[in-house]
Amino acid sequence: MLTSITQVIEAEQHCCAFLRFELVVEPGEGPLTLAITGPAGTQQFLSGLMATSVRVD
Fold first, then answer.
1. Cβ neighbours of residue 42 under 8 Å, at least 6 residues apart?
2. What are phi and psi of 36, to 5 degrees?
3. Residue 8 pLDDT grade (very low, low, confident, very high; cuts 50, 70, 90)
4. Domain residue extents for the chain
């Protein structure tokens, strides 16, 4: 999961670079927390992106 998250962050930084990412990785088997912020319209952009995403396990 961590590799997938960092790949998305890298892709955004190379493509557009308008989002701010804050990734916290807790020790051991603890949770990952990802906060994403950006300019006006970021929430709508991310909501649309998530609505069109396809999860592959």
1. 18, 19, 36
2. -125, 125
3. confident
4. 2-52
